[in-house]
Amino acid sequence: MQVSTAPASSLPSPNRIEPPVRRPLKMYAFDPMLGRAPFSTLTVEVANEPLRPGPSGARLRVVDYDGGSQCFYEPVDLDDPAVLMQGGLEPTESDPRFHQQMVYAVASKVLENFDRALGRRITFAGGRPLILFPHAFRGPNAFYDPEARAIRFGYFAADRSSPGANLPGQNVFTCLSHDVIAHEMTHAIVDRLRHHFLEPSNRDVLAFHEGFSDIVSIFQHFTFRGVLRDTIATTRGDLRSQTPLVELASQFGHATGAGKALRSALDEGGEPDPRLYETVLEPHERGSILVAAVFDAFFTSYQVRIADLLRIATGGTGTLPEGDLHPDLVNRIAAEAAAAAQSILNMCIRAFEYLPPVDITYGDYLRALVTADYDLVADSGLAQRRAMIEAFRLRGIYPKDVVSLAEDSLLWPRPEQPLEPLPERVVGAILHRQTQTFRRRHPGLETFGEGEETVRQEASRKFEAAASEDDPRREGAKAFHAWALRNHVALGLDPDETVAAEGFHSTFRVAPDGQLQVELVAQFSQADDTSKDEFGGIPARGGTTVIAAADGSVRFVIAKPLPSRVLSSEQARFAAARLADQREYLDVWDRDDAFLPWGDERYERTRMSRRDFRALHMTIPR
Ligand SMILES: [Zn+2]
Question: Do residues 29 and 160 make contact, with C-beta atoms less than 8 angstroms apart?
Fold first, then answer.
């Protein structure tokens, strides 16, 4: 007898069973300390990809070398049928294989949030995966290491006298904290998108790195549906109450003896205080001002979204009666809260495309938030943008070079001078590349080849070098460079300095009206290396982000020019003011640094150490 997989010859022969697009994995919602509360372990779904033990995938590779004990732990095989059948290992502090799974799950979620908001797939330099070391060293710290393109998580013994809900002296693993993982992962992605944001050229740059990383961590909490519903039920919908939902790294804060979570999304002191933006310099604390502003905008738009539900539930009064909320109402409010949080998070990430390549300020970020959102959802996003502008204003944050805080004066300006469209050859190459990416992504399990060279890397090479070689693959780069030079005046680039391309890519998004929006984003930068000594080891840098439509016509030029002979008088004033700010900022740091008078070498090292996240995080012993 013949065996056939088809029941009868009239039926089509069965196709291969497609692997599922998503992979369920279990994790702690926050961390093991809060894991003892209800709803605080959960199952997340991440994109399914073939994984080797580690887990080791296309973009993330977990390597479990314990630097404290100098040994390797057995890597988890998430494709093992025994693991697959239970939807990932159960959360536990005692099995390193669960630690590896949790690091992978949270890091994957962060990547997905960026992929979704940016309309393209984030890859790391060289197409190589980011390395995650869950037990890298002993110590209450975790940091992103830009040189090694790795994140190193530490572990430590909880404080013996004031450990919070931890046991005195118990081991606390930063790799089991959702917030620590998401925060460090965001550092790595921000560094990928804007490498020069590690250079503290003004007081907002490092604070932006920190604040933005906290924003991503905290807004991911709102995808924990069980926790969200529980919080809404217990706070009667007041998401501004001090709950784990709005706190960052609770176990870490308590275990280090601080008696509270590491940071929170709420304003220090409960109310916005514009003086803080003038006076606070420490990057994490200054970052918290940005977090509070964004969270405030979220809370306003959440309230607008649930106003009708409250009216329906209260017969029009909007005032909730005493007692427990109806579970149906809790569910509906939770759905609105989750949608509002995702919308704000998308807005915050999408703004990246509209940021200058160098020297970011909070004011730039506000302009980028408004322009990016306006560009995609001009009408429907109005309330959300207004909430954002108002939240920034209340905290004393405004761009320096705008006449008012009206939406249309915050939008980045259209190019003042006529620009040639981007060369067809470059546009074609970029779009072709993106279609290839789409093709390879289908049906969800075919991954990028290892070491694939991305468009960005190709473009990142110094054009000077490219122009000197005959390699046909560099034709596009040459054309691009020539375009930048021909249009240097409109781009604010100094023709006497080397022009480096920081990146060039396309983004694909679907606007609410169903239209596909395709944009090309390019970044150029320039450095005045002779200024290094003057600025404590960091050169004065200029840079320009160009946003073009799919036909190559330039829509926005977001420039931070270096002083040069081609600038208009207004641009020249702007450039000089920027360098004056950088000089002033250096002085402020120097006043803080008691070791400074001990010589030039120390001077340089002190300045450069601000770029080191390990050192930066160690300055916050709480
Ligand atoms: Zn950080």
Answer: no
- Ligand 1 centre and the CA of 200: distance in Å? 14
- The string of pLDDT tens digits covering residues 45-58 is 999 999 999 999 99
pLDDT at 440: 47
Please work out, in degrees rounded to the nearest 5, the angle formed at the alpha carbon of residue 416 by the alpha carbons of 415 and 421: 45
Q: How many CB atoms lie under 10 A from the CB of residue 84?
A: 14
Rounded to an integer, what distance in angstroms lies between the CA atom of residue 482 and that of residue 476? 10
* Residues of the chain where predicted confidence (pLDDT) is lower than 70: 1-13, 35-36, 432-476, 590-622
The two tokens of residue 116 are 């979704």
10 Å Cβ neighbour count for 8?
A: 6
Q: What is the dihedral of CA 191, 196, 202, 207, to 10 degrees?
A: 0
Q: Please state, in angstroms and rounded to a whole number, the distance separating the CA atoms of residues 73 and 57.
A: 18
Ligand 1: centre distance to CA 186 (Å): 9
Tell me the pairing of strands 150-157 and 130-138. parallel
Terminal alpha carbon distance of the chain: 73
Q: Which helix (H) or strand (E) holds 600?
A: helix 600-609
Q: Which residues of 511-542 are buried (b: 16+ CB within 10 A; e: fewer)?
A: eeeeeeebbbbbbbbbbbeebeeebbbbbbbb
User: Ligand 1 mean position to 622 CA, how many Å?
Assistant: 13
C-alpha of residue 378 to centroid of ligand 1, in Å: 33
Q: How far is the CA of 415 from the centre of ligand 1 (A)?
A: 35
Rounded to the nearest angstrom, the distance between the alpha carbon of 283 and the centre of ligand 1 is 9
Distance from Cα 107 to the centre of ligand 1, integer Å: 15
The answer to whether 187 and 214 have CB atoms below 8 angstroms apart is no
pLDDT for res 125: 87
- Distance between CA 578 and CA 540 in Å, rounded? 9
Question: What are the Cα distances from residue 233, in Å, to 228, 298, 322?
Answer: 9, 19, 12
pTM of model > 0.85: yes
How far, in Å, are 70, 198, 427, 504, 544 from residue 357 at the CA level?
A: 40, 11, 20, 12, 6
